[in-house]
Each structure stands twice: as structure tokens, then as C-alpha cells.
Design goal:
Blueprint lengths: L2 H6 L7 H11 L2 H13 L2 E2 H5 L6 H13 L3 E6 L2 E6 L2 H29 L1
Antiparallel strand pairs: 1-3, 2-3
Length: 118
């Protein structure tokens, strides 16, 4: 790759830094399962999230902390319980980044296909 093309690339893409913790948090199957439950069932307590699972409430709490740090869940007090709910905005932003990457690759593949078919 030419030096010119390397220099033309932006070194930072806006928002990518904010999405990195989202992708890291989504890298664990248990956290993905927690997000799926919160998405399907709405706000749930740690007790409800742990019920029917072989995962302890303490482990659920740690997973929820990672998800909260990534901005994927938020909690609200309801009496003595904390109810956790999905926060979709970081997922939407991460999805936009993936869509942009996909579009760039689709364009590159289309150009390659056109060259090969000549």
C-alpha cells in the first residue's frame, strides 16, 4: 500500500472508541443471553435473571456490571430490588459501525468482481 494511501486514512473514526467496550461485553455468551432476556422480557431483577440458570446471582451481578460499564444496561431501584433493563443506544451505534464496515467491504468486493469479470 502506498504511503499516500496510508496517510489519507483517518487514524481515528468517531465513535469507534465508544463501541469497543460494547463489542468486548458482547464477546461473552452469558452476557449475550442476559441481553436477550432483557430484550425479550423487559426489566428484570438479578434474582429473576438467575432463576432457572446454573449461574449464581453473584456471577450475574458481575456480568451485569460489565454490561453496565459498556452502557448496554441500566438499573433502577424498585423497592429493595434493582431492576435491570436493556439500553439499546450503544447497540445501535455499534451496529452502524458494523454496517459501515460491511458497506466498505461490499464495495471492495464489487470492484474486485468487476475486474475479474472483464
Amino acid at each position: 500500500m502506498s504511503q499516500e494511501r496510508l496517510e489519507a486514512r483517518p487514524t481515528k473514526r468517531p465513535g469507534f472508541e465508544r463501541s469497543a467496550p460494547v463489542f468486548a461485553a458482547l464477546g461473552d455468551p452469558r452476557r449475550m443471553a442476559l441481553l436477550a432476556r432483557l430484550s425479550a422480557e423487559g426489566p428484570l431483577s438479578i434474582t429473576r435473571l438467575a432463576s432457572g440458570s446454573d449461574v449464581t446471582r453473584q456471577a450475574i451481578t458481575k456480568h451485569l456490571e460489565v454490561l453496565a460499564d459498556a452502557g448496554l444496561v441500566r438499573d433502577n431501584r424498585a423497592g429493595r430490588e434493582r431492576l435491570f433493563e436493556l439500553e439499546p443506544r450503544p447497540l445501535d451505534e455499534a451496529r452502524r459501525h458494523l454496517d459501515a464496515i460491511s458497506a466498505r467491504w461490499d464495495g471492495r468486493i464489487a470492484r474486485l468482481r468487476a475486474k475479474v469479470q472483464r
